[in-house]
Amino acid sequence: MRRIYANLLLLLVGAVWGMGFVAQSTAMDAIEPVFFTGIRFLAAAIAVLPFAIWEQKRRARKAPENGPILTRKNLVNYIILGAILFSALGTQQIGLLTTSVTNSGFLTGVYVVMVPVLGLLVLRQVPHAIIWPASALTLTGIFLLSGGSLTGLTTGDYWTIICAVLWACHVLFLGRVLSQKDDAKAPFTLATIQFFTCAVLGLVLAAFFENVSWASVVAAAPEILFAGVMSGGVAFTLQAVAQQYTTAPQAAIFMSSEALFAALFGAIILGERIGFSGYIGCLLIFTAMLAVEIIPMLRLRARPQIS
Asked: What sequence ranges are listed for the domain EamA (predicted)?
């Protein structure tokens, strides 16, 4: 797959996730956040499972001498990815109890700036110099989005910022796993194991800490199906497929379009509005997201080729 097509797939992922913010928000009227996270990923896992089975059978027919499609190393990596994914989406869902869809979309998008920062701190990957002014822009944008005062940030906003850190960790680790030269690597299998891991963690924790009932599942069924099958089963699987053909920073920038789609759908469907300073904050955050990817690309293209 060409990189441009992979990036367009990731843009589609951003649009689906943007709509998913609305579904996640309205679901909180009927179901508690951790239970919702668990049940939505159970739906996602069931939706993707047939493709994972097909993937294993296809590989077994194509090259039976290569051994099992799922090695122990990959299984461990996929479970770790699932645990990180659950932590990120669980904190985001808790945040949506007390923040708006628009705020949640843009604050989650801060992970675009955090990806290279964490790459430096954890993987010793030196980021492009643009990351530092981009980080300053992001912090300024968050300040304005909160109404010009850090006390204006709700508890939900802080939960969402934690989500952004965890999501950056997921993008980095997923890129690292997908970059490994391993014949047993398979995106549908990866997605299915991720989702089942999320489902088990969510349902077990919800059983201990939340009110779990079939009535709440029925009441939130449309949101569960959209967040599970579309935002989860379809979008996360597309991410796993597309990110094999692009870089982690490029993946982050295209998926960050979910912030714009979240604001758009939040305004159209939920009638959400923010003040003028909030719009300026959103603009600064999105500018930082774009700068992190576009400026390094432009400088790379401008560099003279040595023949």
From this structure: 6-146, 155-290
Give the per-residue pLDDT at 162. Answer: 92
Between the two ends of the chain, the Cα-to-Cα distance in Å is 28
State the SS3 of the chain.
CCHHHHHHHHHHHHHHHHHHHHHHHHHCCCCCHHHHHHHHHHHHHHHHHHHHHHHHHHHHHHCHHHCCCCCHHHHHHHHHHHHHHHHHHHHHHHHCCCCCHHHHHHHHCCHHHHHHHHHHHHHCCCCCCCHHHHHHHHHHHHHHHCCCCHHHCCHHHHHHHHHHHHHHHHHHHHHHHHCCCCCCCCHHHHHHHHHHHHHHHHHHHHHHHCCCCHHHHHHCHHHHHHHHHHHHHHHHHHHHHHHHHCCHHHHHHHHCCHHHHHHHHHHHHHCCCCCHHHHHHHHHHHHHHHHHHHHHHHHHHHCCCCC
The gap from C-alpha 236 to its chain's centroid, in whole angstroms, comes to: 8
Residue 226: C-alpha distances to residues 23, 47, 55 (Å) = 7, 11, 24
Domain boundaries, the chain: 3-302
Q: Which residues contact 290 (CB under 8 A, 6 or more apart)?
A: 253
3-state secondary structure 84-98: HHHHHHHHHHHHCCC
Confidence at residue 81, expressed as pLDDT on a 0 to 100 scale: 93
Mean pLDDT of 83-90: 92
